[in-house]
Amino acid sequence: MKSNLKLKTIEDIERELSIIIACEKKQKGDISLTQVYDFLAESIELSIQRIGSTNKRNTINKLLGKYKFAKLISKGSYTKANQIPGFPPKDLGDSDSALLRLKTSLTAFKLHSGPFAEHSIFGELDKKQWERIHGILSMFLFGYIQLYGDEKLRFAKEREQKKEKAFTDKKHHHHPQKKKDDRDTKPSGHNNRKWKNKKKTHHKGNKNQGGGPK
């Protein structure tokens, strides 16, 4: 389902998941919370556990896989024409176990340095590429979860993060510039005073020279 979320890293997924857990929620469409958690966890598990199971791909399939991957990354989301391979299996009803499975898989992915499994459509992917796939899949699946009640928690956290970032950027850029301005201003003022004194003395000299001694 289409979502306005932008999840690019495993940390982004974990952050969004923490908001989902904290908020009141209900499902959209016919996909339950358990199915969302389980399917996403399975995708992450397969990317780090299904090692050595490679598909025989000819040159055309390899090029096609790279093209499809590039198109998905460019688009940033799944569409009707480019849906996820497979779909969440039948709801087993235990959302707590599914959530624990998802959290465990996210941690395992962060700790895993390689090798990584071959994607059934896109072919060979490294950790960063798999991370983008998981982020896009998360956006798609989290779109089936409707938050309400304490949904303001999401926006409060976003505002807080933006304020902290803005403050950090301002602090980083402001102080060096201020010091530079101070250095530039002081000599400038000092030079002006010198110029004024010099001009005044020169004027007096001209007066005396023109009038002669009294």
The radius of gyration is 31 Å
Largest sheet: number of strands, sense, barrel closure: 2 strands, antiparallel
Query: What general form does the structure show?
Result: globular
Which spans have pLDDT < 50 for at least 5 consecutive residues? none
Strand content: 5-15%
Strand elements, count: 4
Strands side by side in the biggest sheet: 1-4
Distance between the termini: 100 Å
The string of secondary-structure elements, in order, is HEHHHEEHEH
Your description of this structure?
A hairpin with a 3-residue loop joins strand 2 and strand 3. It is built from six helices and four strands. The chain has 214 residues and is mainly α. The mean pLDDT is 75. The longest helix is centred in the last third of the chain and has 60 residues, at 152-211. Helix 2 (33-49) runs parallel beside helix 4 (95-111) and helix 2 packs antiparallel against helix 5. The strands form two sheets. A two-stranded antiparallel ribbon has the order 1-4. A two-stranded antiparallel sheet has the order 2-3.
Summarize the structure.
The chain is mainly α and 214 residues long. Helices cover 65% and strands 6% of the residues.
Question: Top keywords for this entry?
Answer:
globular, two-stranded antiparallel ribbon, 4 strands, two-stranded antiparallel sheet, single chain, about 210 residues, mainly alpha, about 5% strand
What's the arrangement of secondary structure elements?
Layout: H1 10-22, E1 24-27, H2 33-49, H3 59-75, H4 95-111, E2 118-119, E3 123-124, H5 127-142, E4 145-148, H6 152-211
Antiparallel strand pairs: 1-4, 2-3
Helix pairs in contact: 2-4, 2-5
